[in-house]
Amino acid sequence: MGPVQMLVIGFEGGEFKGEIAAELERLREDDTVRVIDLVVVAKDAGGNVSVAEGEDGLALRLLDVTDADLSHLEAADAADLWEATEAVPPGGAAAVVLIEHRWATALRDAIAKAGGVPLADAWLAPEDVASLGLPA
After folding, report:
1. What's the CA gap between 42 and 66, in Å, rounded?
2. What is the number of structural domains in the chain?
3. Tens digit of pLDDT per residue, the chain (136 long)?
4. 42 occurs within a structural domain
């Protein structure tokens, strides 16, 4: 299995337009990534949180959610939903996606074969890339 990333993507107004799903499908077809699980977290204008979980519920386990009935949680009761719920503004939504980076498997294996050990792993935000003078 390749490296797994948890990605939290916010959407103002809670609208999902389909472009991301289409790109994930393209990447899946190319065997570049595999979507392991997906959770959608929405917050209404009153701050009430609702969650639609993926097929396996793996993302929810990473978020430390163990309650079987996750619909219409009060914002005060949603602390177990990690920072994803706190980051979602009222009226907004977020998708929490677990992605396996299948493209990185051969690189990881080559590093191990050469005796290398990963010491750190980080994704740079676009503003950090821009601060280095690199095109974002």
Report:
1. 18
2. 1
3. 888 888 888 887 766 677 888 888 899 899 999 888 887 888 888 888 777 766 555 455 545 444 444 444 444 344 445 555 677 788 888 888 888 999 999 999 999 999 999 898 888 888 888 899 887 5
4. yes
